[in-house]
Amino acid sequence: MTPPSREPHPDSRPNPRPEVVAGAATGASAGAGAPGDERRPWRRRHLLDVASLSREEIEFLFETARSFREVSTRSVKKVPALRGRVVVNLFYEPSTRTRISFTLAAQRLSADVVDFNGETSSVKKGETLLDTARNIIAMGVDTVVLRHPAPGAPQFLSERVQACVINAGDGAHAHPTQGLLDLFTVIDKLGSVENKRIAIVGDIRHSRVARSDMWAFLRFGAKVVLVGPPTLVPSSLRDIGVDVSYSLDEVLPEVDVLCLLRIQSERQEQGLFPSLEEYSRLFGLNSERMRRARPDVLVLHPGPINRGIEITPEVADGPRSAILEQVTNGLAVRMAALYLTAGGDA
Ligand code: NCD
Fold first, then answer.
1. CA proximity to 81, closest of 60, 113, 111, 112
2. Is the CB–ligand 1 distance for residue 206 below 6 Å?
3. 149, 92 contact by CB (below 8 A)
4. Which of 46, 97, 151, 239 has the most other CB atoms within 10 Å of its CB?
């Protein structure tokens, strides 16, 4: 795991628009949350992982996200919070949800957004990540949202550039905004995750979502069990305080939340499980398994879904699925992440 980034925010001027912080959209005053306030729990310029975030930081981010969520329900879905700032989406891996979510989040905060696609850029001509980033930042970019196949790439960049860096997924290491939006969604639906049993099911080994989810849920007192074939669930993860099970059917009746994961075929070495059919038979969530789960079980999936492999369409589109709520909440959580890392004083 990356070490905590605890650098103080360089700009601690009082916020000229305190109404946009925590409670902004609801009209509440910023109070103890304003950037100039020393009691303000959020002081980071970068969001690199969940493991290094304190519960207070996450709660503050959620409070901010809740006030921003209201903005998305208005007919004019914009606040001036980041007017004049520039956000670049630097994506070296495919993405649908995360990229669009960051773009819309930045636009709703009135920032200018630029999209960078590793497939069609000078990366093809041999340019390094650092050179690409430095050149983009030389054009006046304030925040870099980075998705990269190499674990640690966002941390590497954050140590070398002036801009704020938000990790949008680095290899199998971390996907902090996904972990945060998953926790946000579960708290929203269940009130709390304290002592709730949460199963994360599937390709844990290659999943940055699983790594961010488990830290987020553990920080808020949940009991986490990782479920999947032995080859895809590293038992060493027990060391951070999670349980491990190789049988979905065993844990199914006890869990309050099922977080399903996609098999990361693009990160798999060959032969970690016999076939997708077998995986689906043993670990796929279908209507029959749902009948054996708690009637109020909550089903999450970060997307993209492989229908018929880890989840059947009836379950994905069924009444216990919170998959689209995750997407909606993701926008608010990313607005909060962009806003707080920017210092909230645009
Ligand atoms: C995930 C990712 O890219 O890590 N998707 C996402 O961000 N919503 C999960 C996946 O690709 O399976």
1. 111
2. no
3. yes
4. 46
Please, is 24 exposed, middle or buried when counting C-beta atoms within 10 Å of its C-beta (0-12, 13-18, 19+)?
Answer: buried
Question: How far does residue 304's CA lie from ligand 1's centre (Å)?
Answer: 6
Report the b/e string of 271-301 with b at 16+ CB within 10 A. Answer: ebbeeeeebbeebbbeeebbeebbeebbbbb
**Which atom of ligand 1 lies at the shortest distance from residue 261's CA?**
12
State if residue 228 touches ligand 1 by the CB under 6 angstroms criterion: no
Report strand pairing: 257-260 vs 197-201.
parallel
In one letter, which amino acid is 39?
Answer: R
Which tokens in the block code for residue 270?
Answer: 């060959």
At a CB cut-off of 8 Å and minimum separation 6, what does 232 contact?
202, 203, 204, 205, 206, 272, 273
Structural domains of the chain sorted by starting position, each given as residue range(s) with its CATH number in brackets: 18-174+329-341 (3.40.50.1370), 176-327 (3.40.50.1370)
State whether residue 105 is helix, strand or coil: helix
